[in-house]
Amino acid sequence: MRVTYHNRDINHEEVKLILGASRPRERAFFATLAQSGLRPFTICNLRLKHVKEDLIIDHIPCKMDVSVEIAKGKYRGYFTFVGLEAVEYLKAYLHTRRRITDDDFLFVKQGTKQQANPKSFSGLFSRILRKLEEKGLIEVEQKERDKPRDVRLYSLRKFFRKHAN
Q1: More exposed terminus of the chain, fewer Cβ within 10 Å: N or C?
Q2: Which fold has domain 12-139+147-156?
Q3: DSSP E strand stretches across 37-111
Q4: What share of the chain is helix, strand, coil (3-state, %, to 5)?
């Protein structure tokens, strides 16, 4: 059985509002998701070595290698790219971390070296949307109680799919 949730399209202005209301860690995560199209789980599994080569030399677009171990289905590895904005946010976030090595996760739980949980980013995304909605800057609809809203974290992947064509 498959459940389909119909997310509405999110536009550039809404993405800018969300990124502007986010802290450096979340901003880097959301921008990476919107510009690479990777799943949140895959982004949480990325290590510095997967992006370091292009990140250090400021190569834009920055190549992100997704190894077979972290790819969904584990059938083969692949790569994707992120643009200037995501690279800048990623560098700003990495500057907040101390002594990061090639084998460290790109996104970690705050104050630790443990892998970040994609569900925590989903919750943070919802809180940011709620704050923006209270200020009247963004409209988000929830058709039924205990059902997902029409804008959620995966809307950023839909944004990528729509604009990547």
Answers
A1: N
A2: hpI Integrase; Chain A (1.10.443)
A3: 62-66, 78-82
A4: 45, 10, 45
